[in-house]
Amino acid sequence: MTKETPNESLKNPATHAKPQGDPQEWGKKPPKGGEHDLLKGPRLRRQELWTTIKIFREFIRGFRSLHFIGPCVTVFGSARFAEDHKYYKLAQETGAALARAGYAVMTGGGPGIMEAANRGARQERGLSLGCNIELPMEQHPNPYLDRFVDFNYFFVRKVMLVKYSKAFIVMPGGYGTMDEIFETAVLIQTKKIERFPIIVMGEEFWDHMREFINNALIANETIDAVDMDIFQWTDDPEEAVAMIAQFGTKGDAL
Q1: Which of 7, 23, 110, 249 is the most exposed place for a label (fewest CB within 10 A)?
Q2: What is the largest CA-CA distance in the chain?
Q3: Torsion angle of the four alpha carbons 95, 98, 86, 7, in this order, in degrees rounded to the nearest 10
Q4: How would residue 33 be classed by pLDDT, with cut points 50, 70 and 90?
Q5: Mean predicted confidence (pLDDT) in 53-69
Q6: Where is 110: in which H helix or E strand?
Q7: Is the pLDDT at 5 greater than 70, yes or no?
Q8: Helix/strand/coil for 74
Q9: Which runs of E-coded beta strand occur in 147-228?
Q10: Predicted confidence band of residue 137 (pLDDT cuts 50, 70, 90)
């Protein structure tokens, strides 16, 4: 296995770009306004127009940045797991397995699970991507990224992740991780997108959530039992890659 080197130039410049943007600025606090002002209620029409233009520009920037990344899998999970944690190691092994299978690996670009997955991709010479959302708290990019894109609006970032990802792999995490997993599940349930692999890893961590879905949601018929089929469960990185491969080659319509 090749030892990874943080932010080292890769041998194939055609498929690996240098990190975009100043690392000191990446993860900076968002400017005043943005999503907060958009959602607080009616404003002057010229303000709404200007916000719409900014959102449009962010979409275009995302399209241009991610259009040529090739087959990609997004890995979600907590930023709080240290390097010696079992879930960090699982994410690193999964990132490596995805890279060996030819997938680019996209994360939020931060520490913890995100760093681990990017690190695994880098050690196998795969394309390692960060798709960051600007938040009030400072954060810094992990050192295993080939490229990253900053977003100010959560909903724009979510569109990009679904549009350009072949699958989602969900590692143990908090509210942000659950937000991504359930919003995508709703899109599948309501047939807004075609079947999209959502692979849940770290089964012991998610046991209580699975029990809640079965014993509360399904038991009270707020969802159908078949809706649980949206999720696939494994703790084996190679099996996760095989699950993704069952959905065909990159380019299939979502």
Answers
A1: 249
A2: 58
A3: -10
A4: low
A5: 94
A6: none
A7: no
A8: strand
A9: 147-151, 167-170, 198-200
A10: low
- Taking the C-alpha atoms of residue 184 and residue 199, their distance in angstroms, rounded to an integer, is 12
User: What separation, in Å, do the N-terminal and C-terminal C-alpha atoms of the chain show?
Assistant: 34
220 pLDDT band, cuts 50/70/90, is: very high
- Per-residue pLDDT of 158-202, as tens digits, reads 898 889 998 999 999 999 899 989 999 999 999 998 888 999 999
Enter the tokens of residue 238.
């190679």
Kindly give the pairing relationship between strand 104-107 and strand 128-133. parallel
Distance of alpha carbon 217 from the chain centroid = 26
Contacts by 12-20, CB closer than 8 A, 24 or more apart: 12/125, 15/70, 15/127, 16/127, 16/146, 16/147, 17/146, 17/147, 18/146, 18/147, 19/141, 19/145, 19/146, 19/147, 19/148, 20/65, 20/147, 20/148, 20/149
More confident residue, 60 or 141: 60
Q: How many CB atoms neighbour CB 125 within 10 A?
A: 16
Per-residue pLDDT at 23 exceeds 90: no
Angle 67-16-58 from CA coordinates, rounded to 5°? 35
DSSP-derived 3-state class of residue 83: coil
Q: What is the pTM of this model?
A: 0.80
Residue type, 187: L
pLDDT of residue 248: 63
* 233 membership: H or E segment, kind and range: strand 231-233
Beta strands at 231-233 and 147-151: parallel, antiparallel or unpaired: unpaired
In the chain the domains, ranked by start, together with CATH numbers, are 35-245 (3.40.50.450)
CB 108 within 8 A of CB 76: yes
